Amino acid sequence: MLFPTLSFGLFFLIVFALAWSTSSNDWRKLILLVASWIFYGAWDWRFVPLLILSAVMNWGVAALIVRSDDAKRRKALMLGGVIANLVMLGFFKYFDFFAEQAGSLLELLGVKQDPALMQVILPVGISFFTFQGISYAVDVYKGRVPAARLLDILLLMSFFPHLVAGPIVRASDLVPQFQQKPQLNRGMVTMGLLLIVWGLFKKAVIASELATAFVDPVFEAPMMHGRIDLILAAYGYAVQIYCDFSAYSDMAIGIAALLGYRFPRNFDRPYRSASLQEFWRRWHISLSRWLRDYLYIDALGGNRGGKTRVYRNLMLTMLLGGLWHGAAWTFVIWGGLHGAALCVERWWSRAALTRAWVLPHWAKVALTFHVVVLGWIFFRATSFGDAVAYLGGIFAPGVDTMTVTPLVVLLIAFGLAIHALPWDAMQRAAQRLRTLPAPAFALGLAATMLVVDAMRYEGVAPFIYFRF
Amino acid sequence: METRTRDSYEFPTDLAEEPNARSALGWTIIVIATTSAVLALTNAGAISGWAASFDPQPAVIAMMRVADGWDETTARLGLGAPHARMHKAWKRMEQARWSGNRPVVEQAALDARVPGEDPAVNE
């Protein structure tokens, strides 16, 4: 059940009506919980018990942690909880990948054995809800959040707006909201509806059109395209993945707002970043903050322990962040590229060279953008060889045939131009629109949705981040 | 990844305090109901397309009949015309090419051709 479909629209209308019709907060949460399981079950019913098991396990670990006075036991419980989450994630997401790598390694050593592949089906959203579970267990252990009721943890991990592709909403953000009956105000609703329509436009028009009309065909057969196509398809993919993923986050934030809950911002115009460090403060913010807090600082020690250790920690964080996106070497290389760029940036900013060589801001933005685009080529390619062939095609001499259309160029330009908007452009619009009478606002909303629907590509492709 | 601070997450749906703030549930219900009704009137084709996307079982067939009937009624009243016109204009933009360029599919077919192969032989 994808957000930009009529099936989801009808599902949401029913959930909205039921959730706001009850005066009991517990009943409300039960309604949302069952709705979330139905939403998740629409993909594959078999994994609903896994989702419930994961939530119950994390709730149990946290409950045992707060009951224990023994520091060693508390730590062991927290570590046990983290490991259990990682085992679950590792089995479903990485088992076949590592089995395949082990098989290749054995073959190199002269041992011929077919890898024991299990064709494990990846439960949608598992990377998101296991990370949420880990953060809850660690936060309770560190005393950052109190242990919560089972119902609240079940809903925290299952809540359908963020369930399958984030944002990764932490217990400290959402559980306090679950503990009291939410109230709607016009600002929240207006902003939520604007985010939904804006997300719909980015996904159904920009991302789908770019993918289908240009980016997918070029990445599928890079050798059959000229340099201009290859360069523009790389830019096109940068715009596509931003519009695809940020659209899901926008819609998730908007849908949660209509149900009375606040989700944190997940994207903040990432391609206007003047450094990789800034990029990661603007791209998939909930994941980069998760990686910073739980992996870089809690697990690896952060900036403590000297220069070499800091560079090692940066590299490891980004490599594992890359692997989080998928069980493939292309994601590891993508993470490694970002890690290496972050290390170079850190070294550069601390070296004497900085004073002699100051790049203008626009050049830093352009440089950062192109490093990010280079990373996207590895991220999008199906194999390392394909990515290298793609890059080779960009630099290879030859006749430039061009399949890119004016509309595709326009959409790429538009997708980049929206990064120049002020950060609060939508909030300002919402502040004005919330004063309108309901029928007037509704007519404007319907007219905008009609325009978006007229422009949308036939059918809706799944969101890119669903497979992560 | 420089400093360890409690995240001051920014919540996009938090706007500045509203004057005379009160529960907006009624306002929201009117907005959602009106938007849904306007879209059902002006984009009925989407409903019949959605109904047709299910496996044809008796209940689905009945639903399709209702959806198609609704689509025909709104079309007769001309309510679907703005959407149809906009969709046509968008399709024209999709088909537009740089001067001298062939449509993408045609170009891809040309690109896929083995070098030296005579196109006339295949035609």
What class would the helix/strand composition of chain B place it in? mainly alpha
CA-based gyration radius of chain B: 26 Å
How large a portion of the residues of chain A is in β-strands, by DSSP E?
under 5%
In round numbers, the mean pLDDT of chain A is: 91
Uncertain runs of chain B are: 1-8, 114-123
Coarse shape of chain B? extended
Low-confidence stretches of chain A: none
Shape of chain A: globular
The ordered string of helix (H) and strand (E) elements of chain A is HHHHHHHHHHHHHHHHHHHH
The DSSP helix count of chain A reads: 20
State the distance separating the first and last CA atoms of chain B: 61 Å
Radius of gyration of chain A: 23 Å
Please provide the ordered H/E string of secondary-structure elements of chain B: HHHHHH
State the separation between the terminal residues of chain A, measured CA to CA: 17 Å
Q: How many helix segments of chain B? A: 6
Structural commentary:
- The complex is a heterodimer of chains A (468) and B (123).
- In chain A, α9 (186-220) packs across α18 (406-417) and α13 (307-325) runs antiparallel to α14 (329-350).
- The radius of gyration of chain A is 23 Å and the shape is globular.
- The longest helix of chain A has 38 residues, at 71-108.
- In chain A, 71% of the residues lie in helices and 0% in strands.
- Chain A has helices spanning 6-21, 25-41, 48-67, 71-108, 126-142, 150-158, 160-163, 171-178, 186-220, 227-258, 276-282, 285-299, 307-325, 329-350, 353-356, 361-380, 384-395, 406-417, 425-433, 438-455.
- Chain A folds into two domains: 6-181, no CATH class; 187-455, no CATH class.
- Chain A contains 20 helices and no strands.
- Chain B is mostly helical and 123 residues long.
- Chain B has a domain at 56-95.
- In chain B, α1 (25-42) packs across α2 (44-51) and α2 packs antiparallel against α3.
- Chain B is extended and about 55 Å long.
- Residues 1-8 and 114-123 of chain B have low confidence and may be disordered.
- Chains A and B meet through α1, α9, α10, α12 and α19 of A and α1, α2, α4 and α5 of B.
